[in-house]
Write the structure tokens for this entry.
Amino acid sequence: MTYTFGDNYKSQFSAEVTKLIEKNNAGGFADRVDKMVEVQRLTDAYIDQTGETPEASELERLTDAILSEELKSMYRAKASATEYPFLSERQMMTRISGEASFKLAEETGTDGRSYAPPKRRERSPYENRYVDIHAKIRNIERKRKYRIDTAPGPVETYKRSPEEVSAYLEETYGYRRI
């Protein structure tokens, strides 16, 4: 089939792409190679006649038409059964949602132990009340004990005569009162 493009070549190319997709959906191509040959003829004719490359959106439509069998396939294990699988957007999202994060692999050692930085859990309101009540009780006990330990002792006074004081000083320090 030969293709000719006039003044309005972009809309004509889009119409040809739509025809090719309809032919593909109707089963007009024997296999993927036939589709690829027809797409190659269409794009080559467009480039030769206009000197421009087709728009990316139209090329994507052609690519989807070539890979329509793979994109429509609902075979669950096609990603593992084929060497280079083509996944539809839904299949790709399903695959991504089932994958584990690399963060988990970074934080888990070969021994199976988690080496992630520890995270402190928050206490519940009940636990906070419990801790506050018991902390107040301990604070009252500590305060009482501290007052006892730091309170001044009783003052003891001794009444001695000056002679007794002189004798004590002389005996202890060798001091003699004149």
About this structure: Residues 9-97 form one domain.
